Amino acid sequence: GKTMEQQIGLSHLLDYAQDVINQSTDSILYGKDVNTHLLREAAEKGDEAALKVFEYLGRVLGEAMVSVIRV
After folding, report:
1. Helix (H) or strand (E) holding 11
2. By the 8 A CB rule, do 2 and 15 touch?
3. Residues of 2-34 as b/e, b for ≥16 C-beta within 10 angstroms?
4. Which of 19, 24, 41, 53 is most deeply buried (CB count within 10 A of its CB)?
5. Whole-angstrom Cα Rg for the chain
């Protein structure tokens, strides 16, 4: 399996976000190099691709927390 850093680290998150944005031609971020500030701003404006990234991050963080609690 992957380490927590590999699953939820900034590098992985930005790679995942860039993949999602590159596939979302209707995203306000389409064609841009994604960073955390742009991603947050787009999510605040209701951009579906940006929101998908935050949903993914929330799910992975939740799973990580459950794993820690079980230990």
Report:
1. helix 10-22
2. no
3. eeeeebbeeeebbebbbebbeebeebbbeeeeb
4. 53
5. 13
